[in-house]
């Protein structure tokens, strides 16, 4: 009896394959600003060696709120973004291309 082998692929490989679909790519591109924002906030927090809980305390909010921002599942206000960045001792800059 022959066993079926399951091939596991990384999320990057899966994404690369999905991006070949024009409809998927169009929707993906629409989400790029949210992704970049979440990624930059996450990377800044990690560089500052802060946990989500630590950052939340500095922002006077919940850890869940920070997690939603970093996951890109929330829609943070400009005020919330400024608060997060200031809590990390940084400056918010917005670039329109």
Written description of the protein model:
With 97 residues, this protein is an all-alpha fold. It has a single domain, classed as lambda repressor-like DNA-binding domains (434 Repressor (Amino-terminal Domain)). It has helices at 11-18, 22-30, 32-47, 52-59, 63-71, 78-87. It is extended. The model has no long low-confidence stretch (mean pLDDT 92).
Number of domains: 1
At CATH level 2, the architecture is Orthogonal Bundle
Secondary structure class reads mainly alpha
Global shape: extended
Kindly estimate the percentage of residues that lie in beta strands according to DSSP: under 5%
Major sheet: none
Q: Which H/E pattern describes the elements?
A: HHHHHH
* N-C termini distance: 59 Å
Mean pLDDT: 92
Q: What is the total tally of β strands?
A: 0
Percentage of helical residues? 55-70%
The CATH top-level class label: Mainly Alpha
Count of runs of 4 or more consecutive helical residues: 6
**What fold name goes in the CATH topology slot?**
434 Repressor (Amino-terminal Domain)
Q: Can you tell me the residue ranges where pLDDT is under 50 for at least 5 consecutive residues?
A: none
Radius of gyration, taken over Cα atoms and rounded to an integer in Å: 18 Å
CATH superfamily: lambda repressor-like DNA-binding domains
């Amino acid at each position: 009896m022959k066993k079926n082998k399951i091939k596991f692929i990384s999320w990057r490989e899966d994404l690369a394959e999905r991006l070949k679909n024009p409809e998927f790519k169009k929707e993906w591109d629409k989400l790029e600003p949210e992704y970049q924002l979440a990624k930059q906030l996450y990377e800044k927090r990690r560089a500052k060696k802060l946990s989500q809980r630590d950052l939340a305390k500095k922002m006077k909010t919940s850890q869940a709120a920070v997690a939603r921002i970093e996951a890109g599942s929330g829609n943070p206000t400009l005020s919330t973004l400024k608060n997060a960045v200031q809590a990390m001792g940084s400056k918010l800059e917005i670039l329109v291309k």
